[in-house]
Amino acid sequence: MCKILIGNMKFFEFLLLPIDSFERIVRYMRRKVLVSKLAAFGKGSFINRGWAIPRPENIFIGKDVSIGEGCRLSATNSRIIIKDYSVFGPGVSIHGGNHRTDIVGRTIRSVKESEKRPGIDDADVVVEEDVWIGERAIIMKGVTLGRGCVVGAGSIITKSTLPYSINVGHNRQVGMRFTPDQIKVHEKKIGLEKVL
After folding, report:
1. Residue 138: per-residue pLDDT
2. Residue 170 designated active-site
3. Rounded distance, CA 63 to CA 41, Å?
4. What whole-number distance in Å separates Cα of residue 27 and Cα of residue 70?
5. Which of 18, 82, 121, 139 would be a feasible disulfide site paired with 94, CB 3.0-4.6 Å?
6. Catalytic residue among 95, 99, 170, 186
């Protein structure tokens, strides 16, 4: 008798799948394993292929979040908290820490994780609700991306952003997504006014 491998598919049927189907199944299974290891993963959220998440136990993902292809979420002694309804373009990187570089007589590579200083070398990153992060943007340790803000493609963000701000380049705010009155209407329509 053949064992059931995936759903109702028997082993010999699995072997006859085209390579493309096999790769999709492997990606699906890899994603399922990742999701089971994350600290939180909300309903309706999706992580596209090609991700790199070395410490999934430090990553919290809210509901209806979309993580684009090839994104990297790295937090060793910190957390990355991604709240509801946020969208990441492809290749976005979020880094909750940095190497310690201040020890005289030691190479950077020789410094152990246990020697990192909380809040200095590593700090939480928070992505508030309804945030859009464009392709290949880089978000560094200690940053909070304000609710509803936009981060342009290729931006490097090292400082927290204002809610509903539009940010490009290196920490440069170029405008606001909505007026204050529009923000109230927007938040009421999508149910965020209760979250405050």
Report:
1. 98
2. no
3. 7
4. 13
5. 139
6. 99
- Residue 119, pLDDT score: 82
Q: What are phi and psi of 22, to 5 degrees?
A: -60, -45
Burial 16-51 (b: 16+ CB within 10 A, else e): eeeeeeeeeeeeeeeeeeeeeebeebbeebebeeeb
Q: How far is CA 158 from CA 30, 81, 139, 196, in A?
A: 31, 16, 6, 25
- This prediction has a pTM of 0.84
139-to-45, 47, 54, 56, 120 alpha-carbon distances in Å = 20, 18, 16, 17, 16
pLDDT along the chain (196 residues), means of 10: 47 58 75 89 93 95 97 95 98 94 92 87 96 98 97 98 97 95 94 70
